[in-house]
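Structure ticket #2291
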Amino acid sequence: QVQLVESGGGLVQAGGSLKLSCAASGRTFSSSAAAWFRQAPGKERGIVASITRSGAYTFYADSVKGRFTISRDNAKNTMYLHMNNLKPEDTAVYYCAARSDLRGSLDKWWSSGEYDYWGQGTQVTVSS
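Resolution: structure written out below.
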């Protein structure tokens, strides 16, 4: 089992920046691919970014490319999402997710079904 706790959300003006953190505990987080998802009111949960176990490879939704950066520090069992140039459409609850290290290689990095553990979410609100 992996327990995930997000932090760093809040209210920011358009064009501003926020840094989200996801603290992991339990089974070896460093052996798990991980990702950030978000869900806006009335919309389905969708991928924001994904990162491989070592952090060597990252993947982004088109809507955040060039503005968001996903990273991880396995020594601290923590994953991050640096968000720059925020837009009102980025307003959502942001969730971190991790894949069980007992599963095979990550295939569909954008799919919520590829991840087994989820945090409770942190609200990000961007005002215009």
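Closing remark: The chain is about 0% helix and 50% strand.
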